[in-house]
Amino acid sequence: xxxxxxxxxxxxFVLSVVVTIHELGHYWAARACGVAIDCFSIGFGAPLLxxxxxxxxxxxxxxxxxxxxxxxxxxxxxxxVPDQDNLAAMRESIVRREGEEGVAKYFHFKPVWQRAIIAxxxxxxxxxxxxxxxxxxxxxxxxxxxxxxxxxxxxxxAAEAAGFRKGDVIVAADGRKIATFQDLxxxxxxxxxxxxxxxxxxxxxxxxxxxxxxxVEINDKISGRMKTGQLGIENAGITQFKRSTVLxxxxxxTVEVWGMIKTxxxxxxxxxxxxxPADQISGLIxxxxxxxxxxxxxxxxAPDVATMALRVFISSMLLIAxxxxxxxxxxxxxxxxxxxxxxxxxxxxxxxxRPLRADxxxxxxxxxxxxxxxxxxxxxxxxxxxxxxxxxxxxLFT
Length: 398
Hints:
Pdz3 Domain; 2 domains; two-stranded antiparallel sheet; membrane; RIP metalloprotease; metalloprotease; metallopeptidase activity
């Protein structure tokens, strides 16, 4: 029961922060563009707590804390892009109620570039949140630094087959600089079954070696069972931490976040093209497991409550930064119901000089919703398998 409570509370906290920042991005962009807003909700379902501010916006904390939304005035179309006929009818209704000047405050009658800014503001807010968290972490703690030195080669592994030797220092992979062992791990883990051209410093010489990481399954205490690319080398170096200065923290953090975005894009591309097994896709259950495991691992061994709270807070914020980048990236995918789908429709409107037809919008919305729901179910199935839930349930009846 204690573990379950930790997992639930950790998941709610992490998701609530990420989603709230995302929706606040839409909210503040809409405010800046003069859009009338009816409601800002943290969570879905019946409101547990609600109040109205001086602008008439209803703020809610709802019963299901797994998302949130901003509802603009007059926003009855799920795609938020009514067709020309609906626009005309809506405009006529607004003019009757509020006069001609009232039209300008409605989202649907804003210039397409303003609507695009409002749509993209959510993902951008996620990226900014991640940058700010990483910047504070880089100043206070620093980035881990450990030389990419080969201290041992696993028998029969990809590194042995490629000719790696003890004492080699890996300085580049496919022409990209490898400064630390963490850089090497990140690069190799995504490239199972892809040949990599390594530049290795061996004594006073530089040697070129080509190795193909093998896809292996590991059981990580944080992520559970997962498949990753491995070379089969050992590294026993001492990890040091290099801190950023206050002036360099934001640029350094931006580089870190950009690297995370590129990693997600590359990994997703390999999944879509079938180069990596689809059972690696994780969802809400995986997020919950990771959040709970991070909280437990951070709390263990703490000498006092204050230290434990600080460790849990720091690890949770780093998880929030990582999840924020992932959610920001996924929301930019050109799928109806996501921000990227809205941007695609606005691009069509800007080129065609008219909104997409209502029936096309409705069809796209239904297809996008079905795709997202199907993805969530598939990810949940993977998570249940990854954490051996089915084996556990089966064991109860044997």
